[in-house]
Design goal:
Elements: E1 7-10, H1 20-33, H2 40-58, H3 62-76, H4 83-97, H5 107-116, E2 120-126, H6 129-139, E3 147-151, H7 156-166, E4 173-177, H8 180-189, E5 193-196, E6 219-220
Helix pairs in contact: 1-2, 1-4, 2-3, 3-4
């Protein structure tokens, strides 16, 4: 039971709504477009390499992903890829941007419950600003959140800046998310609490060895509804 928490942070993608399966679906379609050049598994591996190398330039999000798709197509075809495939790749990106927002089970109920207990709820997510704002608006969840933070990355430094902005102590903040690398480890390292909600699909870049976490204390639940067990019926002021 958390008795001193004032602010609860939520990751967005694959914590509040479905996201990663959409990326993997687009990746599969992209590999199909280019299977004349390389086996699909090899294309996926090349794409991941390009994505990671581009993070420092584009950051996280759909637009950087689209640019990485195009760059991968050029690399594996030795710049000979058909313009029609480039056009099809761009259209895959637009398809990704226009995906429906599907809330995960229990999300609305949990946010309503915690709001009634007067916790400050925030979103702390990585990605493209415009895309994340669009998804939040389409989700219908915007009304529950005191603050929305679209972060360029989720490092200890980034979270410290966020806490300073919110004027909250690490002991008063808990983060909830699906990524051990982004939503759990950096928070524990700066003295915050964290609750992990595993999602069935995770981007390979977000995977982390659990050995890095074995001596750190955090909670894991199967569904977002179970996080309510950690918060008192009445919040201490």
């Amino acid at each position: 039971m958390y008795t001193k928490i004032k602010v609860i942070g939520f990751d967005a993608d694959d914590t509040l709504w479905v996201n990663e399966p959409y990326f993997r679906d687009i990746e599969d379609k992209f590999c199909q477009l280019l299977k004349q050049y390389l086996p699909e598994k090899t294309i996926s591996k090349k794409l991941l390499e390009v994505e990671i190398s581009n993070l420092k330039i584009y950051g996280y999000g759909v637009k950087g992903f689209i640019l990485s798709l195009i760059e991968t197509a050029l690399k594996i075809s030795a710049d000979k890829v058909d313009p029609e495939i480039i056009e099809a790749t761009i259209n895959l990106g637009k398809e990704l941007l226009n995906k429906d927002i599907i809330l995960l089970d229990g999300v609305t109920k949990v946010l309503e419950n915690l709001s009634c207990k007067n916790y400050k709820l925030i979103v702390a997510t990585k990605g493209d600003l415009l895309d994340q704002e669009r998804k939040l608006k389409k989700s219908g969840l915007e009304k529950y959140f005191h603050h929305i933070e679209v972060m360029s990355d989720k490092t200890e430094i980034d979270y410290r800046k966020l806490l300073n902005h919110l004027d909250v102590k690490p002991s008063e903040f808990v983060m909830i998310g699906n990524s051990l690398k982004s939503d759990i480890l950096p928070l524990l390292n700066i003295g915050c609490k964290a609750i992990h909600i595993p999602f069935h699909t995770t981007w390979e870049h977000e995977n982390i060895s659990k050995l890095k976490l074995e001596k750190l204390k955090y909670n894991t639940v199967d569904t977002i509804s179970q996080i309510l067990n950690f918060f008192p019926n009445e919040k201490n002021n």
